Amino acid sequence: MKLYSTKTSPYGRLIRIIVLEKGLSDRVENIWTETRKPDLPLYEFNPSGRVPYIRLDEGTGIENTPAITDYLDQLVSPLRFTQSANRNDWTYRSWEATANAMLDGVSVWVREIRRPKNERSPSLIAHEKSRAERLARFFDSRISDHRFDGPLNLLQLYLYIALELEHRISDLDWRTGNTNLVDWHARIDTLDNVRRSLVSD
Ligand SMILES: N[C@@H](CCC(=O)N[C@@H](CS)C(=O)NCC(=O)O)C(=O)O
Fold this sequence. Notes:
Distance between the termini: 23 Å
Structural class: alpha+beta
CATH architecture of the largest domain: Up-down Bundle
Radius of gyration: 17 Å
Largest sheet: 4 strands, mixed
CATH class of the largest domain: Mainly Alpha
Strand order of the largest sheet: 2-1-3-4
Strand content: 5-15%
Bound molecules: glutathione
Helix content: 40-55%
Order of helices and strands: EHEEEHHHHHH
Number of strands: 4
Shape: globular
CATH topology of the largest domain: Glutathione S-transferase Yfyf (Class Pi), Chain A, domain 2
């Protein structure tokens, strides 16, 4: 199967980590595409034009990170990311959704600052900056919980990938005052599959 992504998509990187964690590298070919341009070949089979997108060998495909994660997870047992025990752990589920919200918010921020200066919305940027800072404090005070430890799960991945966007947004300062989160990020950052998921632009 083929994994369509841009080299910079945070969601694409998350899926690359899951591919590695599930031992699926031999079955998934990375295809680098562009987005947000007219007439991309991607639109022929994925009309939304969003990535990541998994094109299955038999000609169908799936977009959206949770659905792709579900698909990849069920290919190789044991289930790790979706239907596993933590699906009924509502504290886990609540934090996973909050980490997903952080990634969505910071992604909106990145997209906004990539627009021409005269098209950017200062109020949107201020909103996303304050959301990200609030959520960084939220996770800093919970990061010693066991749910942030042990084998990578979706909660950890959403949070790590959101924090990683500091490399793309100079105003994203989640580090100041959040020393627990800084230590946690540094530990996740050294994991083998997390390193292997990096690609140069
Ligand atoms: N909710 C989606 C978000 C995916 C997303 O926002 N992808 C961006 C790249 S990071 C994209 O494809 N943008 C191109 C477009 O909107 O046309 C997911 O979880 O996969």
